[in-house]
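Customer ticket, subject: "Can you confirm the structure for Innexin?"

Message body: Hello, I'm evaluating your service for our small team and ran a test protein. I'd like someone to confirm that this is what the system normally returns, since I don't have a reference to compare against.
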Amino acid sequence: MLQSFGELSKHVKPRYGKIRADNAIFRLHYRATSLFLLTCCILVTSIQFIGKPIQCIHGSEEASGAVNTFCWISSTFTMPDYYDKIEGTEVAHWGLGPDLPNMEKKYHSYYLFLKFVLCEFLNFANVMINIYLTNVFLDHEFTTYGTEVIRFAQEDQENRTDPMRKIFPRVTKCTWYQYGPSGSLNKLDTLCVLALNIVNEKVYVFLWFWFIVLAALTGAALIYRLSTMLVPFIRLRMLRLRGGSSYDVFLDSIIPKLNVGDWFMLYQIGRHMDSLIYRRFLSKFAKSLNELEGRHLEMAALKSSPSLG
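Agent reply: Thanks for trying us out. I re-ran your input and got the following:
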């Protein structure tokens, strides 16, 4: 890891004595910012050098790895009722304390699921920005480029205009001005062959179809992801499709008690687990949730009942 930062440091050192056409602001963008972002990527991804992303303290050494994975993928929480407590005297850590019934909890479920959703949104934004910038670069001809090519291919060969040559002409003109021997300004009409445009026109046809298909698929995936976040029925339906109707007895009792992050983890487990083992897991998970809910109800009843004597 230190060697990686050593390589980066070579690009940070200022280089004096060279002719530069840029200025300090430009260098902040293309040198300092890019190096800073690259350094952040190395820090975030080098988990094996700087420790684990989450380390949960509990009493079971056998379940250490499973607990850490569960808490990282699902939701951890703090308790706003303890935010104003004095750390070290009234509470052990800021925002943490005994989990009493009916106590407000603030869940921090952005570790995986929200990052996943954010990446999907950035994917969609990325392809739309690419379409927009390419359209500007091609003088606002790119958005209809593919449809024009399709229409051109379907028209009669005798009465059609090639839209590819409109954007990428193969033969163009150029006017050259030069002074003659006696000082008069001469105008030369030149003909230029742009052989590269034969390749460009095909490349941008492919790019048009690629961007359109990619934008449609990414947009559909984003709508699907937002639907799973906002509509609990869709989350239940997806788990049923994953496991079949035999899971209904467990899912009906589990789904209402899970937030989006918990559901996402449960769905990912089902994708990578044998169906029989997954059914046993759901059975025990539903039983554990019911027992936990029962204990919370008992504690709430004891707290609300009048004290004897």
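A couple of notes from the result: The beta strands are 76-78, 106-108, 171-179, 185-193. DSSP finds twelve helices and four strands in the chain. Feel free to reply with more questions.
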